[in-house]
Amino acid sequence: MALTGPPAAIPGREDQPDRSPAPPPSGDATEPVRQATPAPPSERPAGLASAVTRTRVSTVLAILAISPLMRLAALRYAVPPGLPSRSGCDACGAPVGLTRPWPALGPAARCGHCRARVGQPPATVELAVLAAALLLALAGPPGGALPALIWWLGWTIPAILVDLAVHRLPDRLTVPAAAGTWLLLGVAALDADPGHWLRAVIGGTGLALFFASTALLLGRRGFGLGDAKLALSVGALLGWHGWPVLLFGLVLTFGLSALVSLGLLATRRANWSTHLPFGPFLLLGTTAALLLAT
After folding, report:
1. Quick one: which of 151, 158, 179, 206 could link to 74 by a disulfide (CB 3.0–4.6 Å)?
2. Based on the domain organization, do 148 and 289 belong to the same domain?
C-alpha cells in the first residue's frame, strides 16, 4: 500500500489555513460552560440600612406629631417683654390649648370661635418642622448626637418664631433646649470618646460667655442675653463634632447675618441702627454646619 504525504506547496501560492473543526473533547457529553455569578450581598449591611431608615422615618413622624406643641409654645411666648403669656385668641379671648387644639393649633391657625388668625401665620410652623424632619431623615448626623439635635430643634424652632415676632428669646424655651442638649450629649459620651463631651462643654460655655459679654459691654449694639442662652446649646452641638465644625458654624451664622443685613440696607428696608433678631441665623448656621460636616 502506497503512502502519500501532504501535497507539496505550489510556488507563488499561499497555503490555505486549515478550517477543519477541532475534535470534540473526550467523553460521552460535553459539559456546559458555567458562567460566574456574583456573590449575594451581605445581609448585615442591608439590615442595618433598613434599621436606619426605619429610625429616621419614625423620627420624621414624631417631629410632625409635635407641631401643635410648637405652635402653642410660639403662640404663648410671642409677647413683648414684661407682658404675661398669651393664653387664647386676641380677638375674642377664646382659650387655646391642647384640650382644644383645632383649628387654632393646626396649619390653618384660626380661632374656632371668631375665625381670626391665632399666633404664627398659617403653615409656617408646619413647614419649618417638615423641613427639619426631612433634613434629619436624609442627612442627619449619625451616632448619639442625633437625639440631642432632635431635642434642640424641638425647642429652638418655636423660640426662633418668637424671636422673629417680638425680638426676644424666652428663657422657657432656650434653657430647656440647652439643658436637654447637654444631658443627651453627656449620655452619648458614655459610648464615645470623652473628648467629644469636653469639646461640647468648652464650646457651649465659651460661646455663651462671648455673647453675654457683648450684651453687657455693648448694650443694644451687642447680642442679647437670650442669644447667649441659646449659644449654650449651639456651642455644645457644634463643639461635639470638633473645633473645625464649631468655627464653620460660626462663619456660616455671621455670614448669613451679614448677607441679610446688606440686602436690607441695599433695598432700604433697614438702616444702620435697625436691630435684627440673631436667633434665626444661629438656627440656620448651626443646622447647615452639622449637616454639611457630618
Report:
1. 158
2. yes
